[in-house]
Design goal:
With about 100 residues, the protein is mainly α. It is built from five helices and no strands. The chain starts with a helix and ends in a 6-residue tail after the last helix.
Length: about 100
């Protein structure tokens, strides 16, 4: 489970740094990928990651921060699955005029 936590942490760090340093790349990826995928399908990824983080938090030393991150991931998954699709699309995809 330690490998899982390190892998998820590195993926989040890399995607966050790319989003900060080169926002145009992340904007283009969001414009190309997100309109083709249903929100309910996208929502299962953070839901599964959050459940796995809850499972991994039982074996590590920093169990409270990992549980909090897992809770946030599970909540994000539920919002993406059960939330309105137009609100989610408006937050993630910028209009083509920008």
């Amino acid at each position: 489970m330690k490998v899982f936590i390190i892998t998820i942490g590195l993926l989040c760090l890399i995607s966050g740094l790319v989003g900060i340093v080169i926002p145009a790349v992340m904007r283009n990826v969001a414009k190309k990928v997100l309109p083709k995928i249903n929100n309910r399908i996208i929502g299962f990824l953070p839901l599964v990651v959050g459940i796995l983080l809850f499972y991994a938090s039982q074996t590590g030393r920093l169990n409270l921060p990992v549980k909090i991150i897992g809770l946030v991931a599970v909540l994000k998954g539920f919002v993406l699955i059960f939330g309105p699709a137009d609100k989610h699309r408006g937050l993630t995809c910028l209009p083509s005029g920008r």
